[in-house]
C-alpha cells in the first residue's frame, strides 16, 4: 500500500494552497490556511478550555476555605461539621446574630422535610458581640478560623440525596458566598458528604444550585 499523498488528497486537506516551490529536496508550501471546519474546531476547543479554566479558577480563588463533613453522633443523629478558614482581618457575621441584614451564616436545605435540625449551631471558638460601626447595631462576629457544628436527624424514610448550602457574607469584602454540598445515603444505612464546592452568590436571592 502506498503512503504517498496524492494531489487530490492534499486538495481535500487544504483549501487555497499555493503550488509548492522546491527548496533543495523538500517541498515547502507557501501558504496553508485552515479550512472553515478546521477553524471551527480550533475555536470550539479554545472556548471549552477557557470555560473550564474559568470554573476551575473561581473554585481555587476563593478568599476562604469551608470544608463540610458528617459524623455520626447519637443513634439516628449526625453532626454536620463546617470548618471555616479565613485570612487575617476577614470576618463573618455569626448565625447567632439577631439581625439578618448583614448576611449572617445561614444553613439551608433544598429538601427541608428530609431532616431535622437539633438545637442551635455550636461554634468553636464562640463568636463575640461587637457594635457594627455604621448601623451601631450589636452583632455577633466570627473573626477567627471556626468550626461550626449542627446536629441533625435524617428522616427515617428518606433515602434520596439531600442538597444543602451554607451562605454568608465575607467582610470586609462585602461579598456573599455559598458552599454547596450533597448528603447521600450509604448502603450500610448511614450518610456521607459526596460533594462540596464554593462560589460567589451573586445575584442575591437566586435559587440553590447543585
Could you outline the blueprint of secondary structure elements for this entry?
Elements: H1 7-13, E1 21-23, E2 26-28, H2 36-60, E3 64-72, E4 77-86, E5 92-93, E6 106-109, E7 115-124, E8 128-131, E9 138-142, E10 146-154, E11 162-170, E12 175-185, E13 191-200
Antiparallel strand pairs: 1-2, 3-4, 4-10, 5-9, 6-11, 7-10, 8-9, 11-12, 12-13
Give a short overview.
With 210 residues, this protein is of the alpha+beta class.
What does this structure look like?
This protein is α+β, with helices and mostly antiparallel strands and 210 residues long. It is built from two helices and 13 strands. The protein has helices spanning 7-13, 36-60; strands spanning 21-23, 26-28, 64-72, 77-86, 92-93, 106-109, 115-124, 128-131, 138-142, 146-154, 162-170, 175-185, 191-200. The protein starts with 6 loop residues before the first helix and ends in a 10-residue tail after the last strand. The model is unreliable at 1-35, 50-58 and 205-210 (pLDDT under 50).
Q: Mean of residue pLDDT?
A: 78
Distance between the termini: 55 Å
CATH class of the largest domain: Mainly Beta
Overall shape: it is elongated
Please estimate the helix content: 10-25%
Q: Would you identify the regions where 5 or more consecutive residues have pLDDT less than 50? A: 1-35, 50-58, 205-210
Structure summary, number of beta strands: 13
Please work out how many helical segments DSSP would assign: 2
CATH 2nd-level architecture of the largest domain: Sandwich
Record the strand order, biggest sheet.
Answer: 3-4-10-7
User: So, the CATH homologous superfamily of the largest domain?
Assistant: Thiol:disulfide interchange protein DsbD, N-terminal domain
What pattern of helices and strands is seen along the backbone?
HEEHEEEEEEEEEEE
Give the CATH topology of the largest domain: Immunoglobulin-like
Structural class: alpha+beta
Main sheet, how many strands, which sense, barrel?
Answer: 4 strands, antiparallel
Strand content: 35-45%
Count of domains:
2
Amino acid at each position: 500500500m502506498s503512503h504517498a499523498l496524492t494531489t487530490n488528497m492534499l486538495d481535500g486537506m487544504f483549501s487555497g494552497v499555493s503550488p509548492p516551490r522546491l527548496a533543495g529536496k523538500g517541498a515547502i508550501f507557501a501558504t496553508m490556511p485552515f479550512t472553515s471546519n478546521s477553524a471551527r474546531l480550533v475555536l470550539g476547543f479554545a472556548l471549552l478550555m477557557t470555560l473550564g479554566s474559568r470554573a476551575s479558577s473561581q473554585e481555587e480563588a476563593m478568599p476562604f476555605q469551608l470544608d463540610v463533613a458528617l459524623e455520626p453522633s447519637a443513634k439516628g443523629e449526625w453532626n454536620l461539621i463546617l470548618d471555616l478558614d479565613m485570612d487575617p482581618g476577614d470576618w463573618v457575621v455569626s448565625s447567632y446574630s439577631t439581625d439578618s441584614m448583614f448576611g449572617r451564616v445561614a444553613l439551608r436545605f433544598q429538601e427541608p422535610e428530609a431532616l431535622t435540625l437539633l438545637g442551635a449551631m455550636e461554634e468553636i471558638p464562640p463568636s463575640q458581640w461587637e457594635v457594627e460601626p455604621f448601623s451601631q447595631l450589636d452583632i455577633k462576629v466570627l473573626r477567627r478560623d471556626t468550626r461550626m457544628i449542627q446536629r441533625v436527624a435524617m428522616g427515617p424514610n428518606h433515602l434520596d440525596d439531600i442538597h444543602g448550602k451554607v451562605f454568608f457574607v465575607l467582610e470586609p469584602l462585602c461579598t456573599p458566598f455559598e458552599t454547596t454540598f450533597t448528603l447521600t445515603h450509604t448502603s450500610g444505612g448511614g450518610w456521607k458528604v459526596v460533594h462540596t464546592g464554593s462560589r460567589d452568590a451573586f445575584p442575591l436571592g437566586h435559587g440553590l444550585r447543585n
